Amino acid sequence: MTRPATLSLGRVAFLDDGRWCADPSGFPAVLMAVHNRYGELVDLVAWSPDKPSEWRLRFGDECPILGAADLAQAAWYQEPVSLYSTPERWLRARGSRLYHEGDHLDHQGGDHHQAICILHWGVELGPLFEGVSRVECDSPELGDRFRKAIRSWEPKITAPRENRASTSGFRTVRDAA
Questions:
Q1: What is the DSSP string of 97-155?
Q2: pLDDT band for position 123 (cuts 50, 70, 90)
């Protein structure tokens, strides 16, 4: 079972290396816990409520997926998973309602389904989705981006040549098309 999202508000600055740091003179940001597939807290994602499509991870190297436990469950049971373009959309899709009081956000969860958001697109994504029956993207643009990311990590596939007299004896499957 996936735990409710842990949220807070803070002032942060986005760093040039793709991470964020606490900064008392920075901009106000939503801070949300990122858990690995075992439910362990491994990172924090931050985004401005004014620009939810721009986010950063605090550490950035542990877990590239928000909803990693959902992805692991979808892969294990060969179920579909919903892919959301931003952490905010992921949070809302899970039925979450945010209530703001001062510098505190209260999260009230709703109905839950297998939902994920890719936080770090620069990692090998293909193996993470092995076994998932279908990925339902929240927009055509996200679908295109995801399709390209998965393709970029496809292994090179080889198969024996029909003509065994060739020099290498193998051809790539892509060459045959």
A1: EEEEETTEEEEE------EEEES-TTS--GGGGTT-SEEEESSHHHHHHHHHHHHHTPP
A2: confident
Q: What CA–CA distance (Å, rounded) separates 172 from 3?
A: 44
* Token duo for residue 120: 């770090």
H or E stretch including 72? helix 68-76
What is the H or E stretch that residue 93 is in? helix 87-93
pLDDT at 31: 96
Full-prediction pTM beyond 0.85? no
| For the chain, domain boundaries | 7-160
Residue 155 in tokens: 């292994």
Do residues 129 and 71 lie in contact, with contact meaning Cβ atoms separated by under 8 Å? yes
